[in-house]
Protein 1
Amino acid sequence: MAIIKPFRAIRPKKELAKDVASRPYDVLNSEEAKLEAQGNPYSFLHVTKSEIDLPGVTDIHTAVVYNKAKSNLQEMIAKGWLFQESKACYYIYAQKMWGKTQYGIVGCAAVEDYLNNIIKKHELTRPDKEEDRKEHIRVTNVNAEPVFFAYPDNKELDGIVARYTANAAEYDFTLSDGVGHQLWVINNDADIARIEEIFRKDIPFTYVADGHHRTAAAAHVGEERKEKNANHTGKEEYNYFMAVHFPASQLTIIDYNRVIQDLNGLSETEFIEKLKKSFTVEDKGTTEYKPAKLHNFSMYLGGRWYSLTPNAGLYDDNHPIECLDVTILSNLVLTPILDIVDLRKSTRIDFVGGIRGLGELKKRVDSGEMVAAFALYPVSMKQLIDIADTGNIMPPKTTWFEPKLRSGLFVHDLE
């Protein structure tokens, strides 16, 4: 069963929460982060993307960048922009987007649960990205950003959340992207104890929805500190890391699309003829076409949109991986026709989150940067959980969750 514990969050003063809140480190590059934080000294990007305060730094994985993150965090605390809670609490973090609200319980997950697969994963991590987050934790001595977990729905937890959210929120703001953010503090001892007990007795597993690299990094730094501490007891803060736990039914996965640099020497006509051997291909003209259902693909090529539907018998709906549209696209198009085999290493393919819309796919093809784009129907939470439960791993760039958690609203101190 899952371990979850309260913690003394470092968080913004109420009146600064909106200014501190920032997008996660991995959804924008250094240039975008610098522009987004421009004129805003409170932005938590000064901690998560500290290279924005170091002109001329080209390698963001150097000691000077991590040390700047640490000093920026310390400065934000020293100036009183951030403060540490006087007691260990849970928090409720709500996000409202597209008329739908999801309510997450913010608490610390256990390194032990990660190592024992109580926290289930569905993606592989890249060593370089994992090491980057490990070093950020080592130097700053905090979990600066939460990871995004799902858990099986539980009525009693829903009831506790509903009781708190019936009252005024500690933070309540809407950002320029239209997403609303609210936070409540759970500081009642009985409620704190009961939440921990429900997870321990009734929640068999939790699932990494978003943040596999941050999760792995936090767990491995916890292991490192355990090995170095001759007086280790298991109660130290480094045995835990910060996560927002959402009921699985409340989460939304949107499409994660692909853009292709070349057609592997084929003309557009030759490429379409090869597609027709495995797909029903329909020319949809110049109007944007979005996949209508599972196992239906949208393709943009040569200024036109196409519907692609794979022929029956070419995929296995009874297999958790083979039934995924990302797998079908790889098996029928990317590998056999375009010779794109390793999605993690190939420089001929790129990935575009569905939040950017079909217009971004069209833009990248029309600019000449790419030659074709494929839009996919979103994966479901059921598919994700089935894959995690069976010990399988999703292909790269399969899931894109929205809305993204905002960083800076709560930080976990490892001391």
Protein 2
Amino acid sequence: MIKKLVVWCFALVSGWNMGQSRRLGMVALSIVTVLMLTLPLNAQNTGVRSLTSELRGVWLTNIDSDVLFERDRLKKSLEGLAELNFNTVYPAVWNWGYTLYPSKVAAKVIGRLVDPTPGLQRRDMLKEIVTEGHKKGLTVIPWFEFGFMAPADSLLAKNRPQWLTSRSDGTRIVKEGTHERVWLSPFRPDVQQFIQDLIVEIVKNYDIDGIQFDDHFGLPSELGYDAYTVALYKKEHRGQGPSKNPKDPEWVSWRANKITGFMKRVFTAIKANKKNCLVSVAPNPQRFSYEYFLADWQKWERMGIIEDLVLQIYRNDLNVFISELEYPEVKAAQSHIPVSIGILSGLKNRSVPMSQIQTQVQKVRDRNFAGVSFFFYETLWNMSQEKPLGRQQGFQKIFPTTTAYPNLLTGWKP
């Protein structure tokens, strides 16, 4: 009965303009609440799987999405997620060579306080998400999406060319689809300080629940041949330079270990400023992360410098999807920290059917993972070949009741 009422609410609200939607939505929500309170407890919980905690997350980005660019739209989106029993949001805060929140650190180094997109001016998007998200019971974990990466034509790249790293032939541009990217050298002390200062600024100034990194906190393995890094390598190898083969195991290991050292430093800095701020990482499977991005999350997890892992398993083939869930390093991490699975809910030009999403969620639950997170917000129901109401009903079936975020710092157990 409750399920039918909530679906009716969505149908009712979707047919009216914004002002009418808000008024009707409040009325509908009030009706559901009253009926919920009058139903016996066993009727409310019929058929619901008992979960003491489960990550139910979604990434909010400014790529192919405008959810962050307007205050009322952002607020409404957070309310909608909470109503569908999501409990965690990962808003991007560092993208395209800019911060998406007002940053004194960025202003000093880049020359811009915040990303120049009109919708981000004269407001603090991150503060809005923290305030509104917490009101709705959402865990807020800012996502440091671009890591050491920046657009080739960005102010950051133009203002700090000495910070950029290169291939052995001196070229710097790395293509991501049609976009030209460059990478800051994660081995330079001044680059490390800048990135750490951005992170600490967020941790100190916002009431966030954690902060998240991904593979971009590493480096494409073809890079690392800038003058500073080569000189550092020679200093530690009796004058011998690195292999011209970027996949040489020793050269890969040396760079990965340097990045691990910086990750440890960042973890320490975060904890020094806010000990209850969770350090989360959302990488690709270990083999890819290590070989292609020098991001050795398996070592980070073993060292205890990450407290939450959301593994990106963006696969259509169900057998491949399942096989990725069962690697030894994944199971080892599961016994130590909350490990959740990132599921692709769609891309701009790639719709993922709800049936696939529901099947993958069930396979994750069958293996007792801590939860799931979806990439990305717009493709939950706004950007799909399936109708929005049908998609919302699908997520309602996945998350029929509320549950807590699985937090290592508040007693989560494997």
